[in-house]
């Protein structure tokens, strides 16, 4: 059966015609205990504003029967059931079944390999509820949902509203949940299985955490921090939005095989990959804290107030991303959240926004298929950064007042961009029309460059298609003092033209976009360009160093700096960095620059420079694990791998990473991997073993891994990238060329299973080795024939590869020699020796 994608015009017409009063959804999950079938009965009460008119209801499940006001309806066609001759008041009853398999959306059955227990979840973004039961699957037909779920007797059932009535139902149990507030169909959920549960009071709410039984010890380990973050977020958002979360219960469910995280009202679903089997690093906690706050912010942005159509997806995602950083800095211990955002997500946004897949933050979306392609770095981190600029532009107090007014006026309804702009303009007294047009309706990145003339420093600003956007940014003036840079002045500039004179004193370095208040590609003046890259480590704060790193990285991706220069910048910063939240992101960037962006003739030398930095960092207990993870990707020979294994102690995760590197270097791993697999308690330890095999330069192993990863799709979605990234290893081009061809052959199948698998397989399997410019050109042509979500991600990967190939052609003998001198000056200790402590000197 084909399934038709809902267009914006169809949604507007249906919303004009219909008003949904209530859903009563009966769901029978007992068939999932040992099978794969879910049975649903959907009862929908709705009104028609034009009696006698025709419409349709969405249902892409297998329809067993359907009646409208007692009359039998014809069979579904293309995922729709026609509704003819509607009355003023209507009752629709649809009985449907759905099978859970890898190619079906909406509902999923997972089996824990540790104990064979079965868990089930629903996941409905963007319009996958229709694959499970009949509904009007569009965001602006909100209604209360009353769920009744029949499940095996040993299962817990969780949904949006808490406190269900539980009754025995023969050999099963029936869970009857109270009606929800008015919700969009994609914000509803059912999670079920024999979950392990922890509950605690926080911020006046009953908070719940759930995980599969085999991960109970991990959830116990992390529960205090998770409850603390949730409580802090609830208190912060209630205050800044002027509205408390309106439900007593707030549950978070970590479920196997879930493809990400989903903000279902009152019952957030997480992939349980977030419950790290190895004790999390500070950077991992920083990321998780922001993700947790992101999903919590969605209770307001997305659930309580929902976008009218998918062209305003940013009202959900950009705001939740922004609010997570805002809350982390203001209300939690993760006060370097904006620095971590800059070191990770924002750099991705800069890349995409300067490439072929850029688009306005708010863009036209003709149908839901196009909407699937907008869950990207423009909507999320660029949107978050733009909102940070907006808060700077109008003031934090005014921003909060505007949001309070917005929620008071629009709670439980649907909004558009203009509704929010009106609320913020009213609170601030500023006309935001030019700001809205420039930032939200225009694609591309501003370029802000520093120049010096006879009168002093000058900012030269250009927008992507003309004048720069309206914005406020900071420029810091720094002078050298005892091998460090001290800020002697800062100027906050509101750009009003192409050239802006700065009233700053003479300085050794001027930092454009100091404090990272705006979203723009910045450049130092030509005179201090080389010193700027080399002296980033001298800057005094994590955010100032982060701005310098971001500038260097942006120069790399645009062909204005070499990989060697960027490695030198990053290793220098890492030698002095004080924020544990950015150590691991910077190490990842340094490894990427050395491994993926450097010429073949310089790769080993640059990797040695990064390895030397990792060895020094490993001497600081706060950075030990992150540093050894970096070393596991850069160890130069088997002797260094042996040192890493000795240093890893009882950390099983580090031992797996060491074996991956050993395999890449051609060392024997079979027996060690077998023994490590036997003692690893992780139920997904077989994936770690698969990574070792993926890294092995052996044709038979490559073929076996490709079968498991690609043809069988047996690897959990959260682990696909970790396996694919080592499958495509440098130095194995001869083995990898056939798989580059196989990738292109598989592109038409990547959309199977929905938006998350499509995104993951398109991006993660893209070959960064074993491919050339001809391959890139073929990938670009193939992208144009693909569904939107595959097309966008494939064009992004092809653009990245094209830039890498250009960077690999930019040999830099002098820069490479600098990296070599760094390696020579800071020798790598041999096995069994104690690594040096954290150097205070920049690289």
Quick recap:
With 843 residues, this protein is of the alpha+beta class. The protein has 27 helices and 28 strands. This is Aminopeptidase N.
Task: Please tell me about this protein's structure.
The protein is globular. Among the domains are: 1-193, Immunoglobulin-like (Sandwich); 195-434, Neutral Protease Domain 2 (Neutral Protease, domain 2, Orthogonal Bundle). 42% of the residues lie in helices and 20% in strands. It contains 27 helices and 28 strands. The protein is an alpha+beta fold and 843 residues long. A hairpin with a 2-residue loop joins β12 (165-169) and β13 (172-176). The protein has an eight-stranded mixed sheet with strand order 5-4-7-2-1-10-13-12. The protein has a five-stranded mixed sheet with strand order 15-16-17-19-18, covered by helices on one side. α4 packs across α7 (378-394).
Low-confidence stretches: 813-843
Strand order of the largest sheet: 5-4-7-2-1-10-13-12
Mean pLDDT: 93
What is the 3D shape? globular
Radius of gyration over alpha carbons? 27 Å
Span between N and C termini? 61 Å
Largest sheet: 8 strands, mixed
Q: Report the sheet-strand fraction.
A: 15-25%
Q: Could you tell me the number of beta strands?
A: 28
CATH architecture annotation name of the domain at 195-434: Orthogonal Bundle
Q: Helicity range of the residues?
A: 40-55%
CATH-defined fold name of the domain at 195-434: Neutral Protease, domain 2
Query: How large is the count of helical segments?
Result: 27
CATH superfamily of the domain at 195-434: Neutral Protease Domain 2
Structural category is alpha+beta
CATH class of the domain at 195-434: Mainly Alpha
Organism: Kribbella turkmenica
Keywords: Aminopeptidase, Hydrolase, Metal-binding, Metalloprotease, Protease, Zinc
InterPro entries: Aminopeptidase_N-like_N, Aminopeptidase_N-like_N_sf, ERAP1-like_C_dom, Pept_M1_aminopeptidase, Peptidase_M1, Peptidase_M1_aminopeptidases, Peptidase_M1_dom, Peptidase_M4/M1_CTD_sf
Cofactor: Zn(2+)
